[in-house]
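Troubleshooting log. The previous structure file for this entry was overwritten by mistake, so regenerating from the original sequence record. Sequence copied from the archived sheet and checked twice against the printout by T.R.
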Amino acid sequence: MALWTAAEAASATGGRATTDWQAEGVSIDTRTIAPGDLFVALRAARDGHEFVAQALEKGAAAALVTHVPDGLSAEAPLLIVDDVQTALEDLGRAGRARTGARVAAITGSVGKTSTKEMLRAALGWQGKVHAAEASYNNHWGVPLTLARMPVDTDYAVIEIGMSHPGEIAPLARLARPHVAIVTTVAAAHLEAFGSIEGIAHEKAAIFDGLEPGGTAIYNADLDWTPILAEAARKATDRIISFGAEPAAHHRLLSVRVRHGATVGAARLWRTPVHLKVATEGRHFALNALAVLAASRALGADPARSLIALADWAPPSGRGTLERLMLDDGVAAGTIDLIDDAFNANPASMAAALSVLAGSHPRDDVGHIGKGRRIAILGDMLELGAAEAQLHAALARDPAMAAVQVVHCVGPRMQHLHRALPEARRGRWVETADALVHEAARLVDPGDVVLVKGSKGSKVSLLVDAIRKLGHRRDMSDQES
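Regenerated output below.
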C-alpha cells in the first residue's frame, strides 16, 4: 500500500500533481533518498529545487515544489504548491488525521531523544510503532515525521524541540498527542530565552497540543516544576509527575548504577516495581518512569513495557558505553568509551560526569598502572551571556572530584580549563581536530573515557579517533 498517492497528497496540500504517481516514503535529502520517495524541495542552506533532477534520477516517485525546476519537463512527476514548508506541514497534518494511532510527544532540555527511543522500545512488542528519526524535532522534522507515518500505525512517538520562543506549541498542535512528556528543564538555548524560567514556559507549551482527555507527564524534581504543573492543569485533568521527590506520582526510591546497566526500585501506580535499563545513568532510570507512565496512558501493557526497557540502551552519541580492545601496537588491554558527543548543556554535562564518576577503571592493565576516569569535553553552545560562568562552573560539579584528567575543546571550554585544579587539568585545544592525532596518547588500557560536547564542537571526531585505536568488544565478555 502506497504511503501517498498523487491525489491524496494534492488534496492534503491544495497542490497540483502533474502526473499520477505513488510514493512509498517522504525525503528531504537526496543523499539518503530511497526509490519511491516523495522528495520535498525545502529551502535551507540551499534551495531544494536545485536537487529535484538528482532526486528523480535516484528513483524518487515525485517532488514537492513551488515551480517546475530548470531543466525539467512540465510532465515530470511533481506536486506543485504555493510554499513547500507549508505544504509539508499540511501533509503532516493529514498524515496525523488519517491514522488511528495513539500519539506521544516528548520535549525537554535534556533526554528528548533517548526518552523517545526508550518509549519506542517499550511499545515495540505491543504494536506497530512509528517514531522520529534521529533528532527530527524542529519545524521541518515534526511534520516530516507525521507525513511519513503509515496509516496502520498503532503508536507514534514524536520528539519536539525548540531553539527560539514560540516554536513548541504549534508543533504540539500539529502532532495532537494523546500523551505529552516534559523530561526536564535546564540551561539550554539561553541565548534565545534569557532565563531558565522562559525555557520552562516554552517546554510547558507542549501541553497546549494535547487531545481532549490527554495525559500530561512532567518532572517533579525541578525548581521549575510549578510552571509545568500549572500548564498541565490548564490543559487536562489527567496529570502524572515523575521523579525522586515524595510528591511525585511515579517515584524513584533508589537507584544503583553498575557496569553497563542501571537498576532501581520505584513506586508506579502505588505499586512497587524494580526497573532496569541496559545503560549507565540515574537520569535514564528517571526518564524510564515517564516512559512507563506514557505507555500505560497510550493503552499499552506496562508490565511488557517494563520488560522491554531492561534491554534498552541509548543510540550512538547519546551516552552509549562500549568496550574497546586496543591494538597490540598501542598497548594490550581495553578501555571503556562513553560516547555522548551529540549534545551538551550544563544539566546533561552534570549527568554525564555523574556516570563517569560512578564508573570503574581497571588498575594494573596499562602502561600507567592505575586506571583513570578521563573527560574530553567540548563547548556547550547557545548559552548566551552566561556561557563563560556556566563552563567554569563545571569545575565545581561534585562528580569532578572523581575525574583524574579533563581535556577541554573549544574557546568556551577554556573557561573550564582555567577553573580546574592543575592536577586535573589536561589539554586545552581550540578545535577537536587538534587532538585527533593525539588520541593514542590520551588514553591507556584500564581507563574510562567520556567524550561529550555540543554537536558543533565536533568532539565526535575524537570518538572516531579513539575507536580507531582498536576494535569493539562485547560488554558481556569476561576479562581474562
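The chain has three domains: 4-90, 99-309, 320-468. Archived copy saved in two places this time.
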